[in-house]
Structures are given as structure tokens and as C-alpha cells.
Amino acid sequence: MIDYQSKLFAKTIKEFPKDEEAINAKLLIRAGFIAKQMAGVFTLLPFGLKVVNKINKIIREELDAVGCQELFMPAFQSKDLWEKTGRWDTDNQVMYQMKDRSGKEIGLGYTHEEVITEMATKYIQSYKDLPKAVYQIQTKFRDEPRAKSGMLRGKEFLMKDLYSFHANKKDRDEYYEKIKEVYKKIFKRIGIEALVTSASGGTFSKYSHEFQTISESGEDTIFVCNQCQSAINNEIIDEYGKKCKDCNLKLNQKNAIEVGNIFKLGTKFSEALGLCVADATGNIKPVEMASYGIGPTRVMGTIVEVNHDDKGIIWTKETAPYDCHLIQTRNSKSEIRNKFKSQNIQSKTENIIELLEKAGLDVLVDEREGVSIGEKLADADLIGIPYQIILGEKTDEGEIEIKDRKSVQSKIVKIEKIVDVFCPQIY
Ligand code: ATP
Ligand code: MG
């Protein structure tokens, strides 16, 4: 897909927003990926939506590959349902709760265990119906007290939530380990390091596992073993101790961002909401459950926190809004000066666009008139697409300059070889 920069709805902004503290918010707003409506509430602009869609595509591919099925649940949730688990009253700080015109009390979902478990009673009645796993990627609402971290902590944000149902603990535990591996794959493809971190299991079980990305801006404190990379959340460090159990080495304290969290829920929800099955001998038992979350919008903010420099964002290859940024450095002055050369650049551009389009690549073309070369290059660095194809008068006919945003290295490539550059084994 090819987009032309002069036609875009959003634009880069000259100055950093004054009211933002978080690096991800500053850069994403300035580069035209998000727009703030109020604290913790953002629009995903076309660039931002492309990034989130790429993250979601990776999540979907990896979950679908292990047999999870996608559905989409409502954000409105009835009080009755939440009273059955007792969470209407205990969680009223985080859950937005309101009344409709008839006086009926409803809440906005900040998680979906209640909804999915009650719904599952319609379809799961026997152990033969198990195991099952369903997920959604949906907007969640949380009345967060400190929404100052841009995309890291929204009052309205995207969550991928997966729920699995099992006939017994053994099956549930095996599945939990399987999804843990799937999560590792997802974060690897996204291009961020996410350490599996033992954490509190909240009200559900003793422990849960978080996926934590080390970053100065992280709100969590974790202790990491440099040898085996295992990590422990500060919240359980007193139980665990500050030495790695396997390597016997001192753990190092780090700030980190929680990008994912997986929980063994046990039978807390299935008991409360009557999700029971008959086993082979006819005994009725509550279903064993687990839930698994990833925050795609928080992941987007995390990528920016850990991949940027003083010039702007550096997207990872699989999450960049476009595969490459084609920058025409012809300007009106040079056009007058050298009509022949500028025509050359135009036909070169068209030629390259055709090659890239044929290869199925997503390209942003900066063909803006009246914008200086310096401004175009600065914008390209701010936006952070991994490869910049710079089309200027410097290179000979039949050749182009490709700059790697991350290493800042440029190389001259023959036009017909251009597509090869985007194959990872070459760069
Ligand atoms: P935190 O401790 O940071 O408040 P949490 O533990 O309450 O998060 P979970 O309920 O485990 O969050 O949610 C699953 C995932 O959803 C998190 O791992 C995170 O990636 C994402 N997430 C949670 N809260 C937010 C938020 N306010 N804004 C953006 N993403 C969020
Ligand atoms: Mg969590």
C-alpha cells in the first residue's frame, strides 16, 4: 500500500507538546501517531492505528495458530453479573459504573471474566466440550488514578484478553505453559524484550506471570537474574528473596513496563457463575480457568520508550506503520535549476514505487512540494520508519540511497535490487 504524505489527515507537529511528561506521548503526538483528548484518552491517528493493527495482527496469528478463537464482547456489563462474583462493590474504584435512563446499573468492562464465564455456560456442559480458548481485542475502561504516561496508562485502552477453560488443573497448567511460550513468540516478533516475571496472582492464585520490558519509565520494579533472565516482581520479592533460585546469583533491580500478564484463575469465576461440567463418571465439577492479557496500545508506547533517539521514534520492523519511507529531495529551486534531473527523480520515484508495490510493501512517499530537504529528513527521523529511501540528485541513474533509521548507516543500492534490502537476511 502506498500513501502520499501531502494527502495525510494528520501532520507532524513542530514542537513537543508542553503538557506531556512521558517520552512515548511526546514523540507519538509530535510525529502524528496519536492525538490527546484528555488525560489518558487518545485518538489513534492513521499512523498509530497502523502500528496497533500490526501488533494485533501478530497477536492474532500466534493465538490462532494454537487454536484460540476470536470473538468480540460488549463493553457494557450488567451489575447483576458482577454481583455474582462480588466484584461490583470491591472494584468500584477502577470500574466506571453508571445508571441508564431506566435506573438500571451498568458498568464499563475493565476486564471480561464475568461476561465470558456466564456466556460459556451456554456452550460448555460436558468435559467433552473442553478445552476451549477464546480471545478478543477490545477497548477497556479503567478509572486510572495516574494517567500521565501516555499510551502506557490509558483510562480507555486496548486489551487483548484470552480466556481458557479446562476439565482439570493438569490440562489448564499445560495450556498455561503453552500460552506462555506463545507470548514469548509474540513479543519477539513485535521486537521488544519482555521478561517472564513471577508476580502476585492477585485474588485468584498465589502467583501470576507478567511480561516485563525493562525501561526507565516503567512503573513496576522487578529483580532480574543476569544469567538466566528470570525475573521477580518487587511485590513478591520478600517471599522469594533477592537471589536467583537457579543460578544463585544476586538479582538486579530494574524499572519495567508490564506489557502482558497471565493468570491461573482456578474456579473462582466458574463457581460463582455456575460454569460446571460432568466428568466421565458423572461427577459435576466447576471448570478450571485461566486468563491472559496483553495491552496492544501499551505495547505501542513501550516500543517508543525503548526505541527512540534524540531525533525521534525508531519502529521495529514488524510494527512500523510502513516498511519504508520514500523521500524525494527534489525541491522547486532545483527544479528550475535542473529540469532534466528533477524529471529523472520523478520517473525514478515512479519506477521504485512500482517495484515496492509489486513486492507487497507498505510505503510512505514524501512528495510534498515546498518543504525543505532538511525538514523532510527531520520528519522522516521523527516518524521513525525503519528504512528511508532518499531520492536526490546525489545518486546516479539506476541507483538509490537507503538509510537505516536505527544504525543511521546509508548505502547505495541498484534500483532493481531494492526489494532485497527489505529481506532481513540482507541487512
Ligand atoms: P497495571 O499494574 O499496570 O495497572 P494491570 O496489572 O492492572 O496493569 P492487567 O489487568 O493485568 O493490568 O491487564 C492486562 C494488560 O493490559 C496489562 O499487562 C497491560 O499490558 C494492559 N493494561 C492494563 N492497564 C492498562 C492501562 N491503563 N492502559 C494501557 N494498557 C493497560
Ligand atoms: Mg497485570
UniProtKB/TrEMBL annotation:
Annotated catalysed reactions: tRNA(Pro) + L-proline + ATP = L-prolyl-tRNA(Pro) + AMP + diphosphate
GO terms under cellular component: cytosol
GO BP: prolyl-tRNA aminoacylation
Key word Electron transport present: no
PROSITE patterns attached to this UniProt entry: AA_TRNA_LIGASE_II
Superkingdom assignment: Bacteria
Protein name, as recorded: Proline--tRNA ligase
Organism of this sequence: Candidatus Berkelbacteria bacterium CG_4_10_14_0_2_um_filter_35_9_33_12
